[in-house]
């Protein structure tokens, strides 16, 4: 029986950029020992090229998951209600008693967990199943940039930093509450680069990612903190999609076929120049637009 991650059907990499269109902040946790630091500094991390502002992949995963769950619910698809034990009520809990003695630690166990997971957990994972989609951190430089270019980008992104001040309004008096002034370090420009990886995805999973890119760019979904106060409108641009597939002229998506497990759901594309598998493909410009259109058009017939 074929499992979801047991073979290479297709690995898909989406290279994209993020550009703030309004004030944008992802706040660092904890308190700074520096008394001059803002109350809410932008998150930073040490890199070989300097102490850099960055956008955590976990933050982008949260943005995409939240929006896609809303789309799935609008389509009347099953989406579990998370408790504080995230994933405990989806996939694992539903079938734990049924398979504990029969399929313990077997491939069928994994198949059953995936089958009994909601659509969101099938795509983004839970304590029961692994995530199809993985989000890299985004940095102000491309991976292929030289070390000198990366160091320059880490320095130059700082020029887009601003300090925004906030206050608290006393609801009884309608005036500013005493001692409630705070400040936020935010970005008003710049550009970040990162990737999203999908391992053996089903076709609908890639289609929902494409739809979410569009919705974010139209302002229906914001990113980061302070979204209700005018922050968080960003523009995402897919620069390139790279694929590995078991077929020379098809992208082999996964499809769950009852007790047979996972089978191939191939999408025809231009033949790869590689002579042995896995075969590589790359889509950008008009080819990328056609690829996205093919995904969406074939999905609409299936869903």
TrEMBL record:
Keywords: Antiviral defense
Short name of any one Pfam family annotated for the protein: RAMPs
One GO BP: defense response to virus
InterPro entries membership: CRISPR_Csm3_endoribonuclease, RAMP_III_fam
UniProt keyword Transmembrane helix present: no
Signal peptide start and end residues: none
Domain CRISPR type III-associated protein, chain residue ranges per copy: 48-234
Keyword match Nucleus: no
UniProt name for this protein: CRISPR type III-associated protein domain-containing protein
Lineage of the organism: Bacteria, Thermotogati, Thermotogota, Thermotogae, Kosmotogales
């Amino acid at each position: 029986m074929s499992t979801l991650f047991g073979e290479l059907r297709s690995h898909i990499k989406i290279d994209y950029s993020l550009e703030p269109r309004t004030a944008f902040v992802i706040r660092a946790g904890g308190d700074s020992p520096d008394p001059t630091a803002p109350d809410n500094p932008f998150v930073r991390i040490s890199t070989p090229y300097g102490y850099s502002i960055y956008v955590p992949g976990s933050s982008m995963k949260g943005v995409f998951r939240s929006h896609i769950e809303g789309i799935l619910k609008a389509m009347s698809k099953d989406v579990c209600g998370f408790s504080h034990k995230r994933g405990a009520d989806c996939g694992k809990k539903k079938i734990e008693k049924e398979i504990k003695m029969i399929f313990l630690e077997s491939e069928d166990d994994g198949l059953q967990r995936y089958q009994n997971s909601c659509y969101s957990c099938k795509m983004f994972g839970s304590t029961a199943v692994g995530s199809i989609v993985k989000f890299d951190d985004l940095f102000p430089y491309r991976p292929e940039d030289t070390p000198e270019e990366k160091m320059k980008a880490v320095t130059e992104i700082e020029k887009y930093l601003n300090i925004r001040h906030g206050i608290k309004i006393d609801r009884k008096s309608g005036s500013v509450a005493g001692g409630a002034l705070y400040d936020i370090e935010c970005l008003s420009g710049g550009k970040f680069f990162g990737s999203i990886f999908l391992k053996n995805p089903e076709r609908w999973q890639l289609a929902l990612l494409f739809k979410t890119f569009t919705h974010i760019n139209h302002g229906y979904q914001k990113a980061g903190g302070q979204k209700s106060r005018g922050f968080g409108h960003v523009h995402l641009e897919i620069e390139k999609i790279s694929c590995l597939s078991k077929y020379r002229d098809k992208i082999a998506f996964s499809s769950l076929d009852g007790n047979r497990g996972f089978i191939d759901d191939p999408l025809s594309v231009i033949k790869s120049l590689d002579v042995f598998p896995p075969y590589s493909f790359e889509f950008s410009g008009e080819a990328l637009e056609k690829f996205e259109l093919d995904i969406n058009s074939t999905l609409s017939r299936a869903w």
